[in-house]
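Example A, followed by Example B.
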Amino acid sequence: MPVRLSVSAAAPVLVTIAGRYGSILVVFAVLAILARRLPLADYGEFVLAYGVAATLYFLSGFGIPDGGVRVAAEALARGERARAAGAVRGILVSGLLSLGAAVAIAVVMALVPGRGVVAATALWAGTWALLFAAAQALLALGRTRAAGLFFYAAGGASMLVTVVPYALLASGPGASGAILCAALGYGLAAGVGALLAAISARPLGPAEPSGFGLLAGTGLPFAATRVVQTALVWSVPWAIGFFHGAAEAGLVGTALRVAVIVSVSGCSDDLYVW
């Protein structure tokens, strides 16, 4: 019995670890396929877009997803189910608003000649933001295993069914198409995660309105810290892309992903757990 209890207690952690490191390997495999199929400059633009999307999605909800986890946990500990439901709803609404803003930016940029990559990157950041919000909502509800799977594994797995087929089957794959496929995959995963979180919150009953100001004020410092950490990691590829072009930046960005696999630092890939 003690061994069985120990395994049961460790299961959420093991699932999270497997999803996290498995996702890193999947992303690297996707990059390897894109490196062979895309022109070098287009591959570099995809890598740079990955870094931008991975940095911006943390701040897109202005800390609401992080703050909502804490507010919901405190409310559930006090038996305030309506307040916890309101915090979860606030998390999901912030994700939807982030996606809406990203879609608006993408539409505007798509109308500007030569800004297709920027438009696709904005859309990817928006779908990634919704996926993060869905994972945080599940975490706030105590569904740690599901939260870890969606945040760590769903994004990478989604690229296997969107980006990889595009790269292998398209007659002339390019950066914009690959980024759009990544955004589509993340959007599908985010939709499933958000729906699961909404269904999981129903037993809590009617939601008590939870002010966005409270949630943002609670979580914004943590979101800002993670944005700075991730931006520092990607600052070298961005600088190389600015001064030397996307092709060279793609090579450095790939080396960065290899370093992540070796060191498993993952500073940009952490769910916030209070």
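Example B, a separate protein, is given below in the same form.
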Amino acid sequence: MISDKVLKKQTLFSKWGPFSKAATLSVAFFWIGCGGSNPTKDYGNLTDKAVPAQNFTPEVKYVEVTKTVYGGTTDMVGSDVLVIRPQTGMFFAEGVLATYSIYANILLSNVTFDLIAEGLPAGAKLERSTSNPKTWVLSWTAPYGTVNKETTKELPIVLRIANIKADKQDKLDLINKINTPVSTSLMVLRKLGQPVVLKVSGLSETVEEGSETTFTVDVKAAGRSPENPPRLILNFDRNGAINTDPKTGQSISYEENGLRYIMMKPEDKGATYINSEGVWRYKFTFIAKEAGGIGPRHKKDGSIDTNATEMYVRFTFVAASGELESEPLTTHLKIKLTDSAAPASASEKKK
């Protein structure tokens, strides 16, 4: 057992540190300087046996300099502690649902947080994954028309850690100090949707000869900017002039080319963008007369009808967007002829 006196000496020398070694060297040099005399001759009790060294454990202190220790693990500093890692290349085609994963984590124990996104477009959602609490899912269906005349559009967003809770204030202070937002972008690709002729409005089934009727045609062509309407094509299928009953196959009427009676007045030129779903409205006028009078009328079998009191016309609308074309929408119309317009009978012509 080590005595208190020895412990005091050891403590003294351990506190002196390097100075104790210097003192030992000074004593050694002093012995050498005595010449041939024996400095121990007056100390009969001393022996030649070596004195065993005393064992002791020096006190050691660990000084924290640049790193903080939590739970026995040295936590990294800066961006290595707080991680926000969005998926590379988040592309969204108009009209198509797309989802992307965003990883976020704080590498400290007993810490909870949320991930928020600033600048998300309308309809986009950022939600924590139900299967992985360190992953958030960004989902969005980019509306048609998000991209104008360009082929792509970049939408910048900012990802940020929020609603942070920790079991110790120093952790919270550290996180707030290094909580730097991450900027990224959503890339939207323009996609032209299949065009559709929705409806023809304003025309009744029968019009009087000589009348003028304004009507409209609504067309949906998703993926186009408001100032870039689709094309509207007017057709008449001359080969199918005889209108037949689809159930019986019997001839119903002979339909003339209705395009001869349709015009677009100067004030109605162009199309009007009517809603954000990519719908345009075209305005036309149906004029039930011609400069040279109403054209020839035909019977159901296609022969000329000299005593007709009415005639049938038809015309077809097709919408085109890029290389895509809609299904045709055909309008059938009856023109009721006036007495003055009715052709003279053969007996009347002889008079």
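On Example B: Residues 1-37, 46-51, 53-78, 340-351 have pLDDT under 50 and may be disordered.
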